[in-house]
Amino acid sequence: KRLQVELGERSYPIWIGPGALGRLPGLLEEAGIDTGRKLFIVTDEHVASLYLEKTTTILRDAGYAVSHFVVVAGEKAKSLAVYEQIITAALKAGLDRKSAFLALGGGVVGDLAGFVAATYMRGVAFVQIPTTLLAHDSSVGGKVAVNHPLGKNIIGAFHQPKLVAYDTELLKTLPPREVAAGFAEVIKHGMIWDETFVTWLEENAEGLQRFDHTLLQEALLRACSVKVAVVSQDEREQGLRAILNLGHTFGHAFEALCGYEKLNHGEAVAIGMVAAAMLSEKMGIAHDVSKRTRRVLMKYRLPVSLMLPLKADDVIAAMRRDKKGEGGKLVFVLPTAIGKVEIKKDVAEEQVREVLRALQEGG
Ligand code: NAD
Ligand code: ZN
Question: What digits encode the pLDDT tens for the residues 291-302?
C-alpha cells in the first residue's frame, strides 16, 4: 500500500507491506534513482547479519553498483565519529552527488544515514528501508541527526528521503522489547490525532502482537498517515508538528537519566504519555485520560510507571535542557481527551513534581 507525503518538490511515497524489499529496484526507478547511480547502504551489525546480503543481491541483480558500511547496533552509533567513518567509506567507494544512501535498519541507522546524506557534498538522495516498528515514525518526516555527548539529536538537519520502502516481513525478527517500543509510537499517533485508531489498537492488541500481516500493515498505515498529515502541514516544526512530541518531554528526560539500555526510547515515551495524561488531569485540562492511556499501553506490554528511582530535581533539569524547550521553560504536549492534544508552555514546576511523585509510587 502506498502513502504520499506532499511537500512540493520534496514529495515522496511510503510503501508499506510484505515484499517491499523485493520490489526495491522498481521503487527506486520510480523515485528517479536509476541503475546508473551508485548506492551506499548503511546498516547496523544485527540487521546486516539478517538482511544485508539479501538487499545487496536484489539491487545488484537489478544492475546497481552497491557498497555498504556496517555500524555497531544501538544509540552509540549516532555519533560524529561514526558519521566521519561513513563519509570516509563513501568517498573511497567513489560516491558522487548523483549517488544515494540507503538506510537499512531502525531509527538509529535512519537518523545517522540521513544526516550523512544531508551533508555529503552538500546533500545527496537518500532512501529509508525501515526494519523496526519504531522506524515507522523516524523514517517519515525528514528529521535526521547524530548525538552530541551533551545531548541527543543535537547535530542534525531536515532532509526528506526520496522513498520509504517498509517491508513488514522484516519485522518478524525483532526482539519483543523492540516490538513493544515500536507500538509506543504507534499508540502515540492515535493519542494525538484519532480516538478511533486508539480504540482499534485496543481491540486488535492481540492480533497485532502476533504479527498478523493485514493488521500490522493497517496499523502502520494509520500511524504513518497521522505523521504524514502533521508533517505535510508543518515540515519544519513551526507549530503543529510539535504535537508529535506527546510523552517526549518527560520521555527524553527519563531516557537520558536511566540510560538507553535500561529504558529504551519507546518505553520512555510510554511512561511519558502516562505522565502527560496525569499532568493534564492535575491542571484541569482533561478528565479521566490517564486510566485509558495506561490501559492501552499495558495491552502492548509497555511500562506505565517509573521502576527506577529518579530525583525530581534531575528530571526537571533534564527537561529544561531539552532542545524543544524555549529558554529553559517547561513545554508539554498534553491530552485534552483521548485523540486530542494541546501544547502548553511554561507549566508550573510544582505540578510536574507532583506527577513525578505519583509516577514513582506506581501511578
Ligand atoms: P534501533 O535502530 O537501535 O533498533 C533497535 C534494535 O533492533 C537494534 O539493536 C537493531 O540492531 C535491532 N533491529 C533492527 N531491525 C531489526 C530486525 N528487523 N530484526 C532484528 N533486530 C533488528 O532503534 P529504533 O527503536 O528503531 O530507533 C530509535 C532511534 O530513532 C532513536 O535514536 C531515536 O532518536 C530515533 N527517532 C527518530 C525520529 C525522527 O523523527 N527522526 C523519530 C523517532 C525516533
Ligand atoms: Zn519518539
Answer: 999 999 999 999
